[in-house]
């Protein structure tokens, strides 16, 4: 079947191209319904990537956060009409030790190959997670980024020592919001402290126990473990501040992406015997756990719904461009495209 | 219930010296009609996909669809009628005899030679037909259209901003279409160019659905070249 793919061919230019979908394949065919724009998509769209990288990756369909509706499932794994969350990470091998999102051979949609901005998406059934009835598909559209937080927390749970009286989360953006929301739900007895720079943003963390401006942290404050959700140019300051305030043998989970190498106070890392580990992306297990928690804790979905900045119906390429432009002008909140293209 | 009605009535006379009707020519290694039918086959809103073709091509059409589609009883091949509207009536007759017609039975009619139709266009036609009774897929006219009554001189130049080019699909409440068609006189039937006109002649609104420029109809050798270019295929000389 001929399938319309909306590919970015150069910064700010989306063009229609066609791919072929094999309806004899056992893979599932999904009609995308809600597509959430991520910073990574935005950087491709606005051309804020190295020219060499752009030349290598484009043309490519953007978007790696989406829900859709099953239209054809030859293997019986789903039925037409099922709402599903699509998983962008696509492993090409199995490994008993290394998780799918860390295998160097895995491909990732809207990074190594076409993302979800297509008329139909064909993918193996294990790249889909059924979304139970009653869960807002707009919120579920950005499950991918939520699952990155859930993944980091799962790793923390395996690595960190058992004293978890206080956990600090550095950052006052979406990633920090999601990570601290799930931490509070999973560790209700733990004191969750948020460290940020914008009072207005910190005020949104209503479920947290304490919020602090990074310039006004009490000297005697200590955290058992910490999550860094800052990234970019703020990584260095945030990581070094964590090293200053964390208790000995704590874990530091790094989630923020930085384009540049970050100098950190290794002397104090050694003296305190700290564990620093990174987390990136997520796999099927994390998506399943995230969706289970949506169903189990409806207030999580309610909190996440406040992350939705704007929902825009998209019926033309002009609508796509407008959605990206709207998104880039808004510092907080997700822009979700209601995909009618 | 909703049914797709794929009109494959072309006999290839406009395709130069082609041996086969244009819907059977291949793009991307598959006959054009297969690409078109696939779009309707995978859409679960359709109970059946009914293909209507000339008498002598019924077996051939069944064979190529059996070869290119998974085994199924969703796709039906029938003999077309003497005109497009008679062809559509054949499909309605089939629906009536098999499942029965009710007020909300919808048919979505489409040209077999428009394989680039999109899911959006199909879904919007279905939704609007249920709501309004009849739909037509259109794009704004880009060329200035001139009218000539004698074929030699221009009699009028209509305002382009009010003109659209018709594509397919079109969608209808099947029972209403049938009742209106059989209420026409033979003279009225003679001047019909398509099924939407039946509704507008009888004073009913036909709701417009936004088409796509790439939803092209493969009628001439040039169109085939355009279709192949859209699919990045190597140009082959059409002889």
Could you explain the architecture of this structure?
The complex is a heterodimer of chains A (341) and B (239). In chain A, helix 4 (143-159) crosses helix 9 (284-296). The longest helix of chain A is centred in the middle third of the chain and has 17 residues, at 143-159. Chain A is built from eleven helices and 18 strands. Chain A starts with a strand and ends with a strand. In chain A, strand 14 (225-228), helix 7 and strand 15 (251-254) form a beta-alpha-beta unit. Chain A has two domains: 2-142 and 307-339, Quinone Oxidoreductase, Chain A, domain 1 (Alpha-Beta Complex); 147-278, 3-Layer(aba) Sandwich (Rossmann fold), CATH 3.40.50.720. Chain A is of the alpha/beta class. In chain A, the strands form four sheets. In chain A, strands 3, 5, 6, 9, 10, 17 and 18 form a seven-stranded mixed sheet that branches. Chain A has a six-stranded parallel sheet with strand order 13-12-11-14-15-16, with helices on both faces. In chain A, strands 2-1-4 form a three-stranded antiparallel sheet, with helices on one face. Chain B has 239 residues and is an alpha/beta fold. Chain B has a single domain, classed as Alpha-Beta Complex (Spore Coat Polysaccharide Biosynthesis Protein SpsA, Chain A). Helices cover 33% and strands 21% of the residues of chain B. Chain B contains eight helices and nine strands. Chain B has a seven-stranded mixed sheet with strand order 5-4-1-6-8-7-9, sandwiched between helices. In chain B, strands 2-3 form a two-stranded antiparallel sheet. In chain B, helix 2 (58-68) links the parallel strand 4 (46-53) and strand 5 (75-79). The radius of gyration of chain B is 18 Å and the shape is globular. Chain B starts with a strand and ends in a 9-residue tail after the last helix. Chain A binds chain B through residues 1-2, 4, 16-18, 20, 23-24, 29, 31, 71-72, 74, 80-81, 119-120, 315, 340-341, and chain B through 28, 35, 38-39, 41-44, 69-70, 115-116, 118-120, 210, 214, 230-232.
């Amino acid at each position: 079947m001929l399938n319309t793919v909306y590919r970015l061919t150069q910064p700010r230019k989306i063009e229609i191209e066609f791919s072929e979908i094999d309806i004899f394949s056992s893979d599932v065919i999904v009609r995308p319904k809600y597509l959430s724009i991520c910073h990574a998509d935005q950087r491709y769209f606005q051309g804020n990537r190295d020219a060499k990288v752009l030349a290598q990756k484009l043309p490519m369909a953007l978007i790696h956060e989406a829900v859709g509706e099953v239209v054809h499932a030859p293997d019986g794994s789903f039925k037409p009409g099922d709402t599903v969350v699509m998983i962008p990470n696509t492993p090409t091998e199995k490994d008993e030790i290394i998780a799918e999102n860390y295998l160097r051979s895995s491909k990732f949609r809207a990074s190594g190959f076409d993302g979800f901005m297509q008329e139909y998406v064909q993918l193996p059934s294990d790249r889909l997670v059924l979304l139970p009835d009653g869960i807002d598909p707009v919120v579920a559209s950005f499950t991918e980024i939520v699952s990155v937080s859930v993944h980091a927390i799962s790793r923390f749970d395996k690595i960190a020592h058992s004293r978890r009286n206080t956990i600090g989360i550095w950052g006052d953006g979406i990633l920090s919001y999601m990570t601290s929301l799930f931490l509070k739900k999973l560790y209700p007895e733990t004191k969750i402290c948020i460290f940020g720079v914008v009072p207005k943003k910190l005020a949104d963390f209503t479920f947290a126990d304490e919020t602090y401006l990074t310039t006004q942290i009490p000297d005697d404050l200590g955290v058992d473990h910490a999550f860094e959700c800052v990234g970019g140019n703020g990584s260095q300051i945030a990581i070094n501040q964590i090293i200053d305030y964390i208790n000995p043998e704590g874990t530091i989970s790094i989630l923020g992406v930085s384009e540049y190498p970050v100098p950190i106070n290794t002397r104090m890392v050694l003296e305190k015997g700290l564990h620093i580990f990174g987390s990136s992306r997520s796999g099927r297990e994390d998506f399943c756990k995230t969706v289970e928690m949506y169903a189990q804790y409806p207030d999580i979905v309610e909190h996440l719904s406040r992350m939705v900045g704007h929902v825009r119906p998209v019926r033309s390429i002009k609508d796509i461009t407008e959605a990206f432009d709207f998104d880039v002008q808004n510092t907080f909140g997700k822009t979700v495209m209601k995909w009618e293209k | 219930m909703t049914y797709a009605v794929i009109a494959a009535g072309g006999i290839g006379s406009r395709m130069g010296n082609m041996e086969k009707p244009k819907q059977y020519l291949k793009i991307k290694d598959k006959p054009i009609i297969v690409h078109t039918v696939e779009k309707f086959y995978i859409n679960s809103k359709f109970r059946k996909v009914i293909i209507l073709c000339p008498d002598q091509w019924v077996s051939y059409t069944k064979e190529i669809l059996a070869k290119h589609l998974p085994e199924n009883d969703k796709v039906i091949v029938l003999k077309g009628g003497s005109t497009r509207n008679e062809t559509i009536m054949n499909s309605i007759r089939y629906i009536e005899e098999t499942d029965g017609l009710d007020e909300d039975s919808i048919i979505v009619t489409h040209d077999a030679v428009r394989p680039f139709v999109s899911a959006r266009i199909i879904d919007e036609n279905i939704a609007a037909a249920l709501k309004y009774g009849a739909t037509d897929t259109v794009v704004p006219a880009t060329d200035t259209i001139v009218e000539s009554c004698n074929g030699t001189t221009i009699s009028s130049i209509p305002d382009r901003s009010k003109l659209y080019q018709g594509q397919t699909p079109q969608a209808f409440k099947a029972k209403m279409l049938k009742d209106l068609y059989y209420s026409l006189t033979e003279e009225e039937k003679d001047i019909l160019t398509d099924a939407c006109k039946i509704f507008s002649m009888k004073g009913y609104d036909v709701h417009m659905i936004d088409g796509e420029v790439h939803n092209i109809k493969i009628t001439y050798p040039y169109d085939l070249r355009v279709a192949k270019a859209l699919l990045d295929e190597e140009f082959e000389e059409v002889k």
